[in-house]
Write a structure and sequence with these properties.
single chain; 196 residues; mainly alpha
Length: 196
C-alpha cells in the first residue's frame, strides 16, 4: 500500500490524467485526499482531471460518430464489440429525450460516461453541443469528486483524533478495572478489611 501511495505521489498528475481519461472516480477521490495531505494543488488537480475527461469523452464520441457515419473503423468496431454495442442502445432513449443534458448527467454515473459519449456520437449530436455539455459536466464532476476526496481526508484526520481519544479512554477504563481488580484481590487475601 505504501509503495502504491508513493507511486501516486511521485507521478501524481500523470496518474490523475490517465486515471480520469476513461472513468476515474477512485483516482480523483485519492487525488482530493492527497490535496488535503498537501501533496497536490486542488486547482491543478481539477484542471488535469477536466482536461483528461474531455479528451476521453471526445474520443468515445468520435468512436460512436464513426459508427454512425458508416466508417466502421476496425479498431472502433473491436472496441464496441468489447464494450457491448447493446449498452449504447439502452441509453439511446435517454440521450434522445434529454439531449445535451444527458452528457452532463451521465458524467456522474460510474461506468456510463464513455457509453453516454459514444451514444451521443452514434445519434449524431452536434459536436458543439456535445463539447459544451461535456466541458461543463467534466468541470462540475472534477470539482465535486475532488472535493469529496478532500473531505475524506478531513474526515479521516478527525476519525484518527477520535480513535486516539477512544484509545486514551479505553486505557483509562482498563487501568481503572485493573485497580479495582487488584484492590478486590487484596481484600480477599486480607479479611481484616485493611487494603494497605
Amino acid at each position: 500500500m505504501e509503495t502504491l501511495l508513493q507511486y501516486f505521489i511521485d507521478y501524481r498528475y500523470l496518474v490523475i490524467f490517465f486515471g480520469t481519461f476513461i472513468e476515474g472516480e477512485v483516482v480523483l477521490i485519492a487525488g482530493g485526499f492527497l490535496v488535503y495531505e498537501g501533496h497536490l494543488d486542488f486547482s491543478v488537480l481539477v484542471g488535469i482531471a477536466t482536461l483528461a475527461a474531455i479528451i476521453g469523452d471526445n474520443f468515445f464520441y468520435w468512436v460512436g460518430r464513426s459508427q454512425r457515419l458508416g466508417a466502421r473503423h476496425p479498431w472502433a468496431t473491436r472496441f464496441l464489440n468489447f464494450v457491448g454495442e447493446h449498452r449504447l442502445f439502452k441509453g439511446e432513449d435517454f440521450v434522445r429525450r434529454h439531449g445535451g443534458k444527458s452528457v452532463f448527467i451521465v458524467r456522474f454515473f460510474y461506468g456510463l460516461r464513455f457509453a453516454g459519449a459514444m451514444t451521443a456520437g452514434l445519434l449524431g449530436m452536434e459536436i458543439g453541443r456535445f463539447f459544451f455539455f461535456n466541458l461543463v459536466g467534466s468541470l462540475a464532476w472534477a470539482v465535486t469528486v475532488g472535493t469529496i476526496g478532500y473531505a475524506f481526508g478531513q474526515s479521516l484526520e478527525a476519525l484518527a483524533k477520535g480513535v486516539k481519544l477512544a484509545e486514551l479512554g479505553l486505557l483509562l477504563v482498563l487501568a481503572g478495572l485493573l485497580i479495582v481488580y487488584l484492590v478486590t484481590k487484596k481484600r480477599r487475601k486480607n479479611p481484616s478489611g485493611r487494603v494497605l
